[in-house]
Write a structure and sequence with these properties.
Blueprint (H helix, E strand, L loop, with lengths): L6 E3 L4 H12 L2 E7 L5 E3 L8 E6 L2 E6 L14 E6 L2 H12 L3 E8 L5 E6 L5 E6 L3
Parallel strand pairs: 1-5, 6-9
Antiparallel strand pairs: 2-3, 2-4, 4-5, 7-8, 8-9
């Protein structure tokens, strides 16, 4: 089975971001670093994150600390869409993601019987929430 997942360059904040998303979404979080020879190994506290993977029921997020020689502008070229049908869970995820970020559109009822929201989290990552009708 194929999946499409965003890859996010957090420019040195991958651990912090992925741990926050893990606390909100659950799932399994894997963090990897590189040793002196470039071989991948499980990341230890303080390591630069070479590869992070958060997988759960219906979602997959992949990210890294990026490379200091190749800076990016967070949030300008991607967004993550969170789709769900449990209103309370979606509202809780929205509120947690919005902490320290910028709400661009609050959770707004739509004509399809669901709701949508749009925000940038405290890492500058754009999030769209798509609440499906139950």
């Amino acid at each position: 089975m194929q999946k499409i997942a965003p890859y996010i360059n957090f420019q040195g904040r991958a651990r912090e971001a992925m741990e926050l998303y893990h606390s909100i979404l659950g799932g399994k979080l894997e963090l990897y670093a590189a040793d002196e020879t470039g071989q991948t190994r499980p990341a230890q506290p303080g390591d630069r994150i070479q590869h992070a993977r958060l997988a759960g029921d219906g979602f997959l997020l992949i990210g890294s600390d990026g490379h200091p020689k190749y800076p990016t502008t967070a949030g300008d070229n991607m967004a993550v869409v969170l789709v769900g049908s449990d209103r309370d869970e979606m509202r809780a995820a929205f509120e947690k993601l919005a902490e320290g970020g910028q709400v661009k559109m609050p959770l707004t009822e739509g004509p399809w019987g669901g709701a949508a929201a749009w925000l940038s989290d405290r890492f500058g990552i754009g999030w769209n929430l798509d609440l499906q009708p139950a």
